[in-house]
Specification:
The structure is a single chain. Helix content is about 10%, strand content about 55%. The protein has about 525 residues and is mainly β. The strands form 6 sheets. Strands 18, 19, 20, 21, 22, 23, 24, 25, 29, 30 and 33 form an 11-stranded antiparallel sheet that branches. A hairpin with a 2-residue loop joins strand 3 and strand 4.
Length: about 525
Amino acid sequence: MERIENKVKNQMKASNNIDYPNFDQMWNSIQQDELKVAGGEPVVLRPRKRKRFALVAGLSVALMATPVYAALNYDWSSMLSYREGIQSALEQGLGQTIEQSVTKEGVTLTVHTAFIDENRTVLLYSLKPETSQDVTDIDFKLIGLKDSKGNFVEGNYRGKWNEELGEFQGYFETDWVGEGQTTDVEFIMENIQFIGNKKQSISYNPNDATTQVFPIQKDGVGSVTLQSFEQAEGNVLLKSDVTFTDTEMPYKRVEFEAINDVDESVKQVTGTSSSYRDGGANISQIFKSNNLREEGTKFQLSYEHILETKESTWNINMNLSKKQLENASFKQVLDIPMGNVPNTKIHEMKVTPTQVRLNITQEDYYTLPFREYQLDVGGTLLKGYSMGNGQDLRFEVVGLDAASLANKPITLVAKHRIDSFYGDENDKPIRLTDISEKHQTTTSSIAGYPISWTYYLKDNNLYVETLSSDPMFEGVDRTYYLDGKEQILGEPESYDESNKSMDVYENFDKKELDIYIYSYGINKPNEELRIPLKSGK
């Protein structure tokens, strides 16, 4: 059956059109004890007993051996958009077929496919509830592996609710890869939560610049506090401070929404920025001010809540094998200095059919300064990302025959450098005078870059905004003032608008203040670093 499935997958890659089978001809083939897949190759069936269930089973095999089966198979592409190497391997027919299921409390957990190599272990799984009305997401109190010695293995996971199928598709990924060619593991999931979305109308007044508080007291949401900050170009920054009362779901996706007079969502200028804390969330959103003030505009809070919790444990035992992926895998010790990044070396490169991983070592911890990483493999560029505080650079293998990686030249390409610097208490402080609710501005400079400072009081909190006219200045990351010898750091309010930033000092009662720059960045968007890692053969 696996041979048939691989043949079907290869046929689908060769054509975007799915050729549906001639079911009459196929039925005749079943009666003749054979089935032909596209291309004419016969698949001999076992002699059948003349019973109805045998004919049904034969028809099932026939369907699975045609492109119809592949068309009905899972589409993991949206789920694996950040793990394209796994998606590419699937399209090549790679991956260890598991297809094991367990059903408890009316929910079926199925592990479909596994990938295990020298870089990572990845499981593709689905969760199918008996009923799925109003479900938009699924969460769990615990997910992970147990190795053969009973040790629990944590990892990263991502999932998405498939409304059409009425089930949840996800992947579990861990750096743990086991010892030896094969390894026994147990995949565990505990206390599955079915998540829905609620919308609660709020009487927000966009013409009122004062802080507005709206009690919710339902579905695990306590209240929402809204603050507005007028910005340049007719924009307004809305900050929502949301409190949660549900300890079973301490972190919820939550968002402020504006609905116009034709029941359409008002577009934001930039995406939503969210940060979570125990018992609450801080949400930052930027809108066009006049859009919020349009007559007939309504406002609401959209948030997640738990529909139901299934308190049980789902576990599947399986034996994972590295054999399929090991032939195209290799590793190489490099110990190559990383250009002009201080005290930093590229220690080792590990290559597998799904991912290339570079291990970075440093004498002293130093954040890697580049924002974009690529791997040039014989002219094919692989996009990279950093993990583990920048100690690993990882590149998903897409558009390459993994086996050919051993013969191609490989070069690391790093682009768009941003250097971070700390300020100094010996630097001249910025003097804020006559602090009040009135917006006031002063100027300074650091490292030759001009900085404009705007400061004001709002709800007994001091807000300090910084902005530079020079795009090469990345921005002031954080500020502080001195209380004796103690540094009092401002809390950053992050949102995406050029190099502008905002710090807040709560419960502030001074009229004057000397403020310092704690850290800042210098932007070098055109700087590029190329480091050859391996020559071709």
